[in-house]
User: What shape does this take?
Amino acid sequence: MKNTLKDLNDHLFAQLERLSDEELTGEKLANEISRAKSVTSVASQIIANGTLVLEGRKLIDDRMNANTELPKMLEG
Assistant: This one.
């Protein structure tokens, strides 16, 4: 199973649609709110992880910049 950020976005909008159901009341509404909190928590962690990966890639890209000076021992 391979999930993407598009899949996450789809899940979040589906959750929003479930919360918007005006016929949802009482215990069913409370359960859906609890579920929404769990989905939001997991989604936040996925986004935070993606941000961390992106920042790591930026650091690697900066290190590999063509303008970086070579160490003295590698200069010819």
